Amino acid sequence: MSTLKSFALLFTWLLLPGLALAASPQPPARCKIACKGGPCSLAALANATAPRPVEGSWTTAEQCNQLLVNSGVVELRYLHRGRWFMPPAQPTPSKLSGVFEANPADACSVVSPACLQLALSAKQAAVGGHGIDNRVSKPGGEGDPCALGLPCGTVLPRAEPLTLRLVDAGAQGQLLLRAARGQAAETRLTVQGGRASLSGGWLQPGGLYAYQFSDAAGKPVASGEFSLLSQSMLERLRKRSVQREEQQGLSPAQAWYDTLLENQLLWDALQLDLEASP
Amino acid sequence: MKLYALVVVNLLLWATQPAQAQLGDLLKQLGATAAGVVKQSDAAASAGLPGIPVMGTGKAKSLADIDAELAPDRQCNRPQEKFDIGDKVLEYGGTEASLRLQRIVESDLKYEELTPEDRKMLRYLAQTTVWVPVWLENRLGSSFDLLGNKLPDLLPVEQETFEEVRQQSNKFRALTSDFPGDINLSLNPELPDGAFAKFGGRIQISRNLLQTMSDKPLGGDLLLAHEIAHVYKRHAIKRMQFELISSREGWGLGKKLLQRAQRGSNFEPLRDGLALATTVPQLIAFVRNLQLHFSSEQELEADACAALWLKASALDPAKAWLEFRSAFAPTDAPQAYASTHPPTAEREENFIRKVNSKPGPVEAKPVGPVKTKPPPKKI
Question: What are phi and psi of A133, to 5 degrees?
C-alpha cells in the first residue's frame, strides 16, 4: 500500500508541473494593432479589455493573446526574438492567441524606455578587440539613461531641432552633450518640465555622442551615448519605407514605424509613440 | 567544454583528409623553401652569436642589424614575416644559436631556467618569424568563430552599406597579395564601438563605425587599410608569440609551437593532426585569456602601411587622414587607449612622413576578394 502511495505521489509530482503549465495562461503580450482595408472590431477573451484599433496608424494594445477578431481584418506587430515580427493580417474570425503561441512575444514585446535600456545594457557585456583605437564604449550608459527617456542606440539625424522628452515630466536639470568621435564639440542643454531642445544641425549624421544628465542641484544622474544614422543610410531607410508602403498597403506612418523597428531604431520609434500619446 | 571538443573533432577530421592534397596546398601556400631541422652536420656552415665574428661560410647578423630588424617598421617596407624559423635562427646566431634553440625546445627546460641570451633570441624569433603555419592560423580564426557567439544578422538597412564597405576593402587586399592567409571582414552588431583585427585575418567593425564609414568613405578607406595592415603585419600572431615566451603559463605551449615550427612547413597528417588536436585547444584557451592589445609601435606600423596603400590606390592619404581625424578619432582618450595608442599628433606625424616619402614597390596583383559571411537571411 505504501509502495502504491509512493507511486501515486511520484506520479502526481511528475505530472503536476506539466498540468500547471498547460493550465497557466500565456504571459500577457502587448502589441501594436491596426485595422486593414476598412474598419475592424475586436473582442476580449477572459478579463482583457478590447482595444479599438483604427486604420492607418498603430495602436498599442494590452494582452493581445487574449483578443478575438470580431469583424474586418487586423494587422499586428510585436517583438519576437528581438526582431519586429509582422505576421500575416488576421481575418474575421480569428483568435490572436494562435499567432502568439506559434511565435511568442519577447518579455518586452513593444518598445518602452525600460525595454530600450535592457536591450542596450546587454551590449555592455560584448567584448571588443583592438584595432583602430580603444575607445571604451557603454551603450547602456550609467544610471539607466535610456529608461529615463534620453537618447540611446542609433538615432535618426534631423535637420529640425531635436526635442528630448524625459519619462519624468517634472524633471529639471542640465544635459551636457559632447561629440565622442571626430571634431570636438560640446553643448549644454537646460532640462525643464522633462523637456530639452537641441538646435537642428548640431548633431552630425554618422556621429557618435556622449552625454551626462545632472539634476537641478548639479548632481550627475545618468550618462550615456548614442550614434546618429548616416545620411546615406537614412536615404536607404526612406526608400525601404516607401517600398513597404506600396508592397504591403500600409499608410506612410505605419510603414515608417515598421521600417524604424525593423532596423532597430528603437529610440525614434519611441518618440513617435510619445508624439501620438495624449 | 563541449565547444572545445567540437574544435578538437573539427581539427582531427581536417587532419585526416587526404595527405597528398594538403601537402600540395601547403607547399603552394608556404613556398618550397621550407625551414628544415637544424642538424649537427650543418655545423660546417656555422656562425657565432650575434656580433661575434666567426670563421666559416655562414655569417651571423651584427647587433646593429638585429636592432634594426627589431625596430618598428614605420615605413612599411620590410618583407613579410615568414614561417622560416630555421633560417632566421641561423641568421641570428649561426649554428650555435640553432643548436641552442633545439636544446631549449626539446629538453624540459623550464621558463625560469632560460638565460638572458635565450630570452633575447626567443624575442627576436617572436618578432621576426611566424611559428604558426598559415593553415593553422586560418584554422585558429575559424575555431574562434566556432567558440564565439554567432553574429546576429545584419539589419536590412545595413546590408547594402556593408557590401559597399566590403568592395571598398578589396583594393587593399589586392595590394597585399603576398599575405598568404584569408582576410575576413564582418560587421559585428554586438560590438559597442570601434573596429579591430584578430587572428586568422578576422576584421570586425561596429555598427557605429559602419555608419560613419558610409558618409565618410575616404576616412573609411584609412580605417580599412589600417586594420588590414594589422593582419598583413601579423601583429596578433607576433603578440601571441611574444606572450607565450614571456610568461610561465605560456612557455610550455610556446615550446611546442617552436618545436613544431622547427620541423618546417611540411604537414604530416598523423603526427601533426594528433599534436594539433591537443595543442590548438590549449592555444585557443591561452589566447582567449589574453587581452590582446597591439602595442603603440604596431599602431604606427599599421598607419604607415595604410598611408602607403592609400597612395598606391590613387587616393589622397592627407585628405583621408583629415577625414579620419574629423569623423572617426575619439575626442576623449581614456587611459586604456592612451596606454596602447600613440598620441594622435605622433600618429599624424608618422602618417604624413610616410605620405611624403617616395613611392615604395607596391603593385596591385590579382587576388581573391575579401571574404565576408554569407548574406544574412531575410525575415
Answer: -165, -175
Q: What is the ipTM of this complex?
A: 0.79
How does pLDDT run across B13-70, given as a tens digit for each residue? 444 443 333 333 333 333 322 233 233 233 333 334 454 433 334 567 788 888 888 8
Mutate to test the interface with A, among B145, B154, B157, B218 (most CBs of A within 10 A): B157
Contact criterion met (CB < 8 Å) for B156 and A183? no
- The chain-wide mean pLDDT, for chain B, equals 75
Query: How many contacts does A have with B, using Cβ atoms within 8 A?
Result: 145
pLDDT < 50: residue spans in chain B: 1, 3, 11-49, 51-57, 333-338, 361-368, 373-379
Give A-chain residues touching B325 at CB under 8 angstroms: 182
The pTM assigned to this predicted structure is: 0.78
Please state the length of chain A. Answer: 278
Strand pairing report for A67-80 and A94-95: antiparallel
Interface of A with B (CB under 8 A): 83, 85, 123-124, 126, 128-139, 154, 178-184, 204-208, 210, 227-233, 236-237, 240, 262-264
The domains of chain A, with CATH numbers, are 27-102 (no CATH), 113-231 (2.60.40)
Helices (H), B155-268: 156-174, 207-215, 217-232, 235-245, 248-262
Whole-angstrom distance, CA of residue B320 vs CA of residue B351: 11
Per CB-CB distance under 8 Å, the chain A contacts of B227 are 131-132
